[in-house]
Each structure stands twice: as structure tokens, then as C-alpha cells.
Design brief:
Helix content is about 55%, strand content about 15%. It is built from eleven helices and five strands, in the order αααααβββαββααααα. It has helices at about 5-10, 25-40, 45-55, 60-75, 80-85, 125-135, 160-170, 175-200, 205-225, 230-235, 235-255, and strands spanning about 90-100, 105-110, 115-120, 140-145, 155. The protein has a five-stranded mixed sheet. Helix 2 (about 25-40) packs across helix 4. The longest helix is centred in the C-terminal third of the chain and has 26 residues, at about 175-200. The chain is elongated, with a radius of gyration of 23 Å.
Length: about 260
């Protein structure tokens, strides 16, 4: 398991993580070594070569290995504290991507709140969500379309993923999906522009202005719910999160 802390939290409080320096390697150099090993996936020998070439430091492979293991022991007590922070967050961004560990395919999960980022490596299954979020999470969950997320009532779809889907439909060889993809891409782009502009100006109630517009888009989505094109037919579900996300953005922008 890997966990990470964003700079916002590290500036506000000290978490009491200590790394001994008896081997003459300080915390910052240890952090670099861990990054090279875990993020850049370099072997101990490659890390040693990097330090020699770029920093003119000559560390033995044993020392490098010791730094990595000691850093892991130092941060292990923070897992529960980070999990608590994630579970109490008002909005949480979650995504997962394929990740190899010892030559075997695993999945790297990333949970990002306004304060912390929590990483965990495991299988692509609902069990990971249950472990991280527990039974107490009541915030907004921003995700892609992976089915394990769909049981969360306060789930919002990531618009970057939805835009990618509309671009795929625009390239379809079938007329209906291609036409719908073009229209859906224009709708999402317009709504995103509206939200960005609203953030820059004074508080504005956008819901009355765009309620009819979203209603027409919903009808367009529902018309193709029985389409034989799988990605095309999924848009009624996609719309529900698109509309909810737009309304939520408007409410957050206007304040309570």
C-alpha cells in the first residue's frame, strides 16, 4: 500500500514522521529515493546510477534499500489518519489505472480530497472501495463510469471522461451515434464554459436559464436508450450525472 500527503496538509500541521539518519541520508534525499523507486519504478542499481550522475552522490545499494524500507515503516502509522480524512471529505475524486507489481497486473487507485491524496495498490474490485471509504462516506464522489461506483447515491461523473466518450461517438461509422456524439460534445462544452465563466463573475443563478436546455438534452439521450450501439445506449445514465453535476456546480458557485 502506498499513501501520499498533499502540500496543503503538510504546511498546516506536523504528522510526527521521523526517519533516522544514522546512515547519513536525510529525509529529503530519502523521499527522492522512494520517489525514484515507487513512482519512477527504478531498480536499486538504477537509483544508484542516477544519484551518481546527477547529484554526485555515491550510495551503496544496501543503503538505498534501507532508505526505502525505513521510509515505509515511518509512514505506515499514518494510514488510518489518512483514511479518516478521506472518509470525512465533502468531495472526493477517485480513479484507478493498471499498474504492474512484480510482473503481475494490479491496479493503482487514487483518492483525492481537498486536503489529502491516498494511494492504494490492489485489485480492480468493489472491495477496495469498501476498504477505503468504509460505510460512513457521505460526500460527493467524482468518478468515471466503472460499475463499482454506481451504488453511491452522491456520485458525479467526471466530465473529462464524458467528453472522451462523445469524441468516440463522433468518430462512429453509424449515422445516429455520430450525430448524437457531435451534439453531446457541443452541449458538454457549452455547459463547462458557462460554469467557468460563472466562477469568475458575481454569484449568478444559472438553473432557471439552463433547465429547459438540459431538459431537451435529456430527451435526446432518452430517445436512444434502446440503441443497438452499446456506448450510445448508455447515455441516459450518463445524462443523469451530467445534469446533477451541472446543478451541483451551480449550487456550489452560488453558495448556501
Amino acid at each position: 500500500m502506498s499513501i501520499g500527503l498533499c502540500p496543503i496538509v503538510s504546511k498546516k500541521r506536523r504528522l510526527g514522521v521521523e526517519i533516522s539518519q544514522w546512515h547519513m541520508v536525510g529525509p529529503k534525499l530519502t523521499a527522492l529515493i522512494v520517489c525514484l523507486s515507487k513512482r519512477m519504478r527504478l531498480s536499486r542499481r538504477r537509483i544508484r546510477e542516477f544519484l551518481q550522475d546527477w547529484l554526485r552522490l555515491d550510495l551503496g545499494i544496501g543503503t538505498i534499500n534501507q532508505c526505502i524500507h525505513e521510509a515505509g515503516r515511518a509512514v505506515s502509522p499514518l494510514t488510518e489518519e489518512f483514511l479518516e480524512e478521506v472518509r470525512e471529505s465533502l468531495i472526493l475524486f477517485v480513479d484507478e489505472t493498471s499498474w504492474k507489481e512484480w510482473g503481475k497486473k494490479q491496479w493503482l487507485w487514487v483518492f483525492t480530497s481537498l486536503k489529502v491524496t491516498f494511494y492504494i495498490i490492489g485489485f480492480r474490485s468493489r472491495k477496495v472501495l469498501d476498504y477505503v471509504l468504509g460505510q460512513t462516506f457521505k460526500g460527493l464522489l467524482m468518478t468515471d463510469g466503472y460499475k463499482a461506483y454506481r451504488t453511491f447515491l452522491n456520485r458525479l461523473r467526471c466530465w473529462a471522461h464524458l467528453l472522451r466518450k462523445t469524441k468516440g461517438l463522433k468518430q462512429s461509422l453509424s449515422d445516429d451515434p455520430r450525430t448524437f456524439g457531435t451534439e453531446a460534445h457541443e452541449v458538454l462544452t457549452e455547459l463547462m464554459d458557462v460554469i467557468y465563466k460563472a466562477r469568475e463573475g458575481p454569484p449568478t443563478d444559472l438553473l432557471p436559464v439552463y433547465r429547459e436546455f438540459l431538459g431537451e438534452f435529456k430527451e435526446c439521450c432518452m430517445k436512444y436508450r434502446d440503441s443497438t450501439h452499446k456506448k450510445h445506449a448508455s447515455w441516459p445514465e450518463n445524462f443523469s450525472t451530467t445534469g446533477t453535476l451541472f446543478f451541483m456546480c451551480c449550487r456550489i458557485r452560488r453558495g448556501p
